[in-house]
Each structure stands twice: as structure tokens, then as C-alpha cells.
Amino acid sequence: MKSTFTDARSTLVSLAQPQRAIALARFFKTGPGQYAEGDQFLGLSMPQQHTVVNQYANLSLAEVEKLVQDPIHECRMVGLLIWVKQSSKAIPSQQAIIRERYLVNRRFINNWDLVDVTCTYIIGRYAVKGDRSILYELASEDNLWSQRMAIVSTLALIRVEQFGDTFAIAEQLLPHKHDLIHKAVGWMLREVGKRNSDALEEFLHDHVSKMPRTALRYAIERFEPAKRAYYLKL
Predict the structure, then answer these.
(1) pLDDT digits (tens, 9 = 90+) for 50-87
(2) Which Pfam families does the record match to this protein (predicted)?
(3) Helix orientation angle between 5-14 and 61-68, rounded to the nearest 10 degrees
(4) Which CATH number applies to 1-107: 2.140.10.10, 2.80.10.50, 3.40.50.300, 1.25.10.90?
(5) Taking each helix axis from N to C terminus, what angle separates 133-140 and 164-173, rounded to the nearest 10 degrees?
(6) Angle at 105 between CA 104 and CA 111, to 5 degrees
(7) Which listed residue, 25, 39, 158, 177, has the most CB atoms within 10 A of its CB?
């Protein structure tokens, strides 16, 4: 008998750790007015979730989609990670279907961890093959998580030494008000710098005066102390 959404969800619920769930709810800012207001946690560790991903890696697209739409955070995470796993082994036509469902359901990809561990492998890998338009569409949406998805997805491009889209989207997002975008922009710029410090410094030369301090600190984290101090004074 094929496994179902209900089977996977029941497995996750059986692993619940209520005290850890309280701590995770606090860590992921689920209180009134916070960015993840109302999100629900079971208290599972990432290794526990990966075990469930492996157990239910052959769930159908429709059953995974039910996980992705679940109000419980770990259900969404496991569903998204199943799509990542399935996409990595799929033929291009199947990858396209997973990518389309991922994007259709992006309103449920609504915290930084859900974005960060999945978008590079589903959106970013597609961008590497040539079509970058979705990155700019996401960056232009008035939605924190879509915008974070846009910049973090460029990590796939950075890994193949293609930095132009990271710089373009970073520039587009520099005026953003939220620190979760500042951190993501700085993180991706730092990843560029690991591979090409000259390219990063050229970007900093042109934009440092407009960069939020958090983004700048993340971007220059690997610089020598004297060089970090120089940029922080600009």
C-alpha cells in the first residue's frame, strides 16, 4: 500500500517534543505581530525530519503538497525537503512540475528556514540552466519570503561562478527594511567573496554607502580585521 500524507503527518506528530516546540516557537518569532505569527511547531530536530523525508521520499506530488500546506511547521519542512529530494533525481519534465508546485505554494514557504534549505535546489538549479526571470519576479513581489527566496536562490549561480544576478538582486533589495533580507543579501555577497573577493569589493565600492549595516557586516565577515574596519567606517 502506498504511503499517504496522513501516514507522514502521523509519523511526525508521534515524534513531537512539546518543550522543544515552545522554544522553537519563540526562536522562529511566532508571537503576535512577529514575522511568523501563529506558526505551529512539534519540536522536531532537523535529523528527525530528514529521517521522515527518507521514509516518505516516494510520496506522490499531491500527497507532498498536502504536507507543504499543513499548518504545522515541520510538516511543511518535510514536504519541501521531499520535493528537493525528488527533484534531485527527476528528469527535467518532472523537475518542472515540482518547481511549478513549489512556486504555486510559496505562501506556505513562510519562514527563513523553509526558504533557505529548499529554494537553491528547486529555483536556483533552474536558474543555472538559463532562465533567470523567476528570480526577478520573486524579488519584485511585496512579500518578505518571496524576496528572500529570490536572493538565496542565487547561491546556485554563485556555486558555478556566476555572480551577476546575485549583485543585481542584492542591489534591488538594498532599500528593504527587514533585517531578514539584510542578512540574506549579506550572506550571498559573502558567498561571492569566498570565490572572488575582487568582485565583492567592486560591488562594495559602488554600494557601501547605501547598504544596511547588517548586510555589510555579513558581507565582510571573512575580511581581515583591518579591511573590515575600513568598510565599516565608510
Answers:
(1) 999 999 999 999 999 999 999 999 999 999 999 999 99
(2) DNA_alkylation (PF08713)
(3) 40
(4) 1.25.10.90
(5) 10
(6) 135
(7) 158
